[in-house]
Amino acid sequence: xxxxxxxxxxxxxxxxxxxxxxxxxxxxxxxxxxxxxxxxxxxxxxxxxxxxxxxxxxxxxxxxxxxxxxxxxxxxxxxxxxxxxxxxxxxxxxxxxxxxxxxxxxxxxxxxxxxxxxxxxxxxxxxxxxxxxxxxxxxxxxxxxxxxxxxxxxxxxxxxxxxxxxxxxxxxxxxxxxxxxxxxxxxxxxxxxxxxxxxxxxxxxxxxxxxxxxxxxxxxxxxxxxxxxxxxxxxxxxxxxxxxxxxxx
Length: 249
Hints:
By secondary structure, the protein is mainly alpha-helical. The protein has helices spanning about 25-45, 55-75, 85-100, 115-135, 155-165, 170-200, 205-245; strands at about 10-15, 15-20, 20, 25. Helix content is about 65%, strand content about 5%.
């Protein structure tokens, strides 16, 4: 059976070393560019010829964007709508990376199965929250770590816990996406290997191989659902964190 971790191996396509740092163009870089290209094509087709009565492509683009706006309006308020383009860009990029990684037979790579990529996206959210928080509230932003009504004798402990919890946000945001995508692809690879291994028996190969094949079909459907849900969760948590910066609660 093939090693299920081989699918996550980073391969250099164009090696590039600058001042001792590796800036090589890799398969992960390639598939992120493909994701950006797919998103750009999707948005171009949907908005090239806007109509009062939208067609399918225009309706799909408008629905996704309004979905993100409604999520920000619900979690942040009207002030959050100004950040809709960025949250929408993060959402649709993660969604494209997740879904493109599910395409079989063409050696598709899932960039979001690597912690470096997901942490980079989470860092964008974290830096945005910090910048917005200090820009809107100044040093008063630190009151985020001092919950109202906390007894004075436990205030230092609560403030330390809240501060550490705040610092852990980019790590939990990155690990959640990375772990879900990695685990799903490993399971697909393992059960795909079972199909080949058990189906190669000389006696009744179809009987032995049909069970893991059925499991793999079910896992594929589940992984498609997870790919969509994880993009939504990433955007949802980003909007919730943004609410702390805008409204301090």
